[in-house]
């Protein structure tokens, strides 16, 4: 647990700096608002009340997120496996090969069905 | 006196135990807000707090690897998936008046029953087991890996089939074949 003390200190420093900046800016900065300043900032593009397509996103994004999550879960198991690999020996190797092979079938299926193509 | 020192008690909590209870209360509050808020995006963001609180609880129980898996998988991926779902279904910005369900009392009963069952099972299984929070980490990555790959081989292999099913399901639901389009 003590290894996390520097991270906590760093987080505290970061939060302190953020709060200090916001509070000091609102206390000391000049406040001369106009219409352009109060507009939503959209990288120089005129803000539109309704996004294109009514704000709906294509299902492609969901598929990509789903693919990511499945392979994310697969990869995360490699960490405890790698740490204990020496103690597990051949049994652990066969175990992980079977696991990876099954998920590889899923990968091949996605590839064949065009799940990796964007259009 | 010796007895109290040998057996951990509830009346003299250590700092880690106090922190555990406080984080647990914050997690419970965030979870309640997740299911009661009328704004869908707020519900997803409160879920981040609840899942993050759980990660801190794992960390306090010395299960470092599980804690970071919780952050990576749940906070990192599952919540993003939920937010994608909100964007895909054109969830309204602001309050959703129809976010309430007529099944709320049934849902509450199911939730309380599930929570009661889980608490009973965990308390019954680990009645006399105490984690020494001050000593060497008993939930380290090595321990997790050894237990997972030695004793829980079948669930681990079954998980790969579950992942396969999830992927096939995602493809079938989202991809149309050329003729259907």
From TrEMBL, chain A:
Enzyme class: translocase
Key words of the record: Cell membrane, Membrane, NAD, Oxidoreductase, Quinone, Translocase, Transmembrane, Transmembrane helix, Transport
Listed InterPro entries: NAD(P)H_OxRDtase_bac/plastid, NADH_UbQ/plastoQ_OxRdtase_su3, NDAH_ubi_oxred_su3_sf
Membrane topology: Multi-pass membrane protein
Main location: membrane
Transmembrane segments: 6-27, 61-82, 88-110
GO molecular function, one term: oxidoreductase activity
Location of the protein in the cell: Cell membrane; Membrane
Enzyme Commission number(s) from the entry: 7.1.1.-
Assembly with partners or alone: NDH-1 is composed of 14 different subunits. Subunits NuoA, H, J, K, L, M, N constitute the membrane sector of the complex.
Role: NDH-1 shuttles electrons from NADH, via FMN and iron-sulfur (Fe-S) centers, to quinones in the respiratory chain. The immediate electron acceptor for the enzyme in this species is believed to be a menaquinone. Couples the redox reaction to proton translocation (for every two electrons transferred, four hydrogen ions are translocated across the cytoplasmic membrane), and thus conserves the redox energy in a proton gradient.
Entry similarity comment: Belongs to the complex I subunit 3 family.
HAMAP family cross-referenced by the UniProt entry: NDH1_NuoA
Protein name: NADH-quinone oxidoreductase subunit A
Species per Swiss-Prot/TrEMBL record: Streptantibioticus parmotrematis
GN (gene name): nuoA
UniProtKB/TrEMBL annotation, chain B:
GO molecular function: oxidoreductase activity
Keywords in alphabetical order: Cell membrane, Membrane, NAD, Oxidoreductase, Quinone, Transmembrane, Transmembrane helix
Family membership: Belongs to the complex I subunit 6 family.
Signal peptide: none
EC number: 7.1.1.-
UniProt cross-references to Pfam families, sorted A to Z: Oxidored_q3
Function: NDH-1 shuttles electrons from NADH, via FMN and iron-sulfur (Fe-S) centers, to quinones in the respiratory chain. Couples the redox reaction to proton translocation (for every two electrons transferred, four hydrogen ions are translocated across the cytoplasmic membrane), and thus conserves the redox energy in a proton gradient.
Lipid bilayer topology: Multi-pass membrane protein
Domain of life: Bacteria
Protein's UniProt keywords contain Oxidoreductase: yes
Subcellular location: Cell membrane
Transmembrane intervals: 18-36, 43-61, 67-93, 105-123, 152-173
Enzymatic reactions: a quinone + NADH + 5 H(+)(in) = a quinol + NAD(+) + 4 H(+)(out)
UniProt protein name: NADH-quinone oxidoreductase subunit J
Organism (species): Streptantibioticus parmotrematis
PANTHER family: NADH-UBIQUINONE OXIDOREDUCTASE CHAIN 6
Keyword Ribosomal protein in annotation: no
Principal cellular location given in the protein's record: membrane
């Amino acid at each position: 647990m003590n290894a996390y003390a520097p991270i906590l200190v760093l987080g505290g420093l970061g939060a302190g700096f953020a709060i200090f900046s916001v509070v000091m800016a609102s206390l000391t900065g000049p406040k001369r608002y106009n219409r352009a300043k109060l507009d939503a900032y959209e990288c120089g593009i005129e803000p539109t009340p309704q996004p294109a397509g009514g704000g709906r996103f294509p299902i492609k994004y969901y598929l990509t997120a789903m693919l990511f999550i499945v392979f994310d879960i697969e990869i995360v198991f490699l960490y405890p496996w790698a740490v204990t690999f020496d103690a597990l020996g051949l049994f652990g190797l066969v175990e992980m090969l079977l696991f990876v092979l099954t998920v590889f079938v899923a990968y091949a299926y996605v590839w064949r069905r065009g799940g990796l193509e964007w259009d | 006196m010796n007895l109290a020192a040998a057996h951990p008690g509830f009346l003299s909590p250590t700092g880690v135990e106090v922190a555990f209870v406080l984080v647990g209360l914050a997690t419970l509050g965030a979870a309640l807000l997740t299911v009661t808020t009328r704004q869908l995006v707020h519900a997803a963001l409160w879920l981040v707090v609840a899942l993050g609180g759980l990660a801190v609880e794992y960390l306090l129980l010395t299960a470092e690897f599980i804690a970071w898996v919780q952050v990576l998988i749940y906070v990192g991926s599952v919540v993003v998936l939920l937010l994608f779902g909100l964007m895909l279904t054109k969830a309204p910005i602001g309050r959703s008046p129809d976010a309430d369900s007529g099944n709320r009392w049934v849902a509450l009963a199911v939730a309380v029953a599930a929570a009661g069952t889980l608490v009973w099972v965990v308390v019954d299984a680990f009645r006399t087991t105490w984690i020494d929070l001050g000593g060497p980490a008993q939930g380290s990555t090595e321990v997790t890996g050894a237990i997972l790959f030695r004793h829980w081989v079948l669930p681990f292999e079954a998980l790969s089939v579950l992942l396969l099913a999830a992927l096939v399901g995602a493809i079938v639901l989202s991809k149309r074949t050329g003729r259907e389009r």
